[in-house]
């Protein structure tokens, strides 16, 4: 049973909103009464997702945004404010995987690409969200890190560097902006059943078996479970929660 929130009159922004955890979170915000701005690099998918929410009676728009481009991140926030007049909540979720690689063989291109999306993209989105929220004197931001922001694993150095960076970015901004009425936290999903994870594990039966050994709960997570945590962190129920890196991982990081 999910808690009930009332976000009527509030505006939420979600990046990476066309599928997976982002789409589930956009739906959760909308179901709680928020107007939702869905942003994604995939134009057709994000427009379809926004239209589906509108058809279900919610307020929603789709915005095309490549978060590696700061100008696009700024325009994304401007679209939210132009359309709905304010910005109250944001889930900076857009992210990509990097191909597994021996740390001695990892290419600079792969390192730069994964950090451009996962770390610089979160930095750019958060920067421009904060510019709006500080004028309002209120707001809540959740940045998407990963269990990879809390632990190290072989052949994942670049990806884990990006996700560790998100936690540092979050904590520093959180202590800076808490006195201004803005709460910033991070969420650290474990292995969640999303298109990205499915694609990563296709044909990797041994990798999946190894992952499941580390899952005390005995299953993969669901996108809706991540959404529930993200929405809670944005809600008044988490009003005294600042600068955390919340694992939503079925117990993976307890090892």
From TrEMBL:
Signal peptide: none annotated. SMART domains: PKS_KR (SM00822). InterPro entries: KR_dom, NAD(P)-bd_dom_sf, SDR_fam. GO terms for molecular function: oxidoreductase activity. The keyword Oxidoreductase applies. Residues 10-190 form the Ketoreductase domain. This is SDR family NAD(P)-dependent oxidoreductase. It comes from Streptomyces corynorhini.
């Amino acid at each position: 049973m999910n808690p009930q929130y009332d976000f009527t009159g509030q505006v939420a922004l979600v990046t990476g909103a066309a599928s997976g955890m982002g789409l589930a979170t956009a739906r959760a915000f909308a179901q709680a009464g928020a107007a939702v701005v869905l942003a994604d690099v995939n134009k057709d998918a994000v427009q379809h997702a926004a239209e589906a929410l509108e058809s279900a009676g919610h307020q929603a728009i789709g915005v095309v945004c490549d978060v590696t481009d700061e100008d696009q991140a700024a325009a994304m926030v401007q679209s939210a404010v132009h359309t709905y007049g304010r910005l109250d909540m944001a889930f900076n979720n857009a992210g990509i995987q990097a191909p597994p690689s021996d740390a001695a063989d990892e290419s600079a291109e792969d390192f730069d690409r994964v950090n451009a999306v996962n770390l610089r993209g979160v930095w750019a989105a958060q920067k421009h969200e904060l510019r709006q929220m500080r004028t309002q004197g209120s707001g809540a931001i959740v940045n998407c890190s990963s269990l990879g922001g809390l632990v190290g694993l072989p052949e994942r150095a670049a990806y884990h560097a990006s996700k560790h960076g998100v936690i540092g970015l979050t904590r520093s901004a959180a202590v800076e902006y808490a006195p201004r009425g803005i709460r910033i936290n991070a969420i650290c999903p474990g292995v969640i059943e999303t298109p990205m994870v499915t694609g990563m594990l296709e044909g990797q039966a041994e990798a999946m078996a190894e992952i499941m050994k580390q899952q005390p709960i005995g299953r993969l997570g669901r996108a809706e479970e991540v959404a529930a945590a993200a929405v809670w962190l944005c809600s008044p129920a988490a009003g005294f929660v600042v600068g955390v890196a919340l694992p939503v991982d079925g117990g993976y990081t307890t090892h």
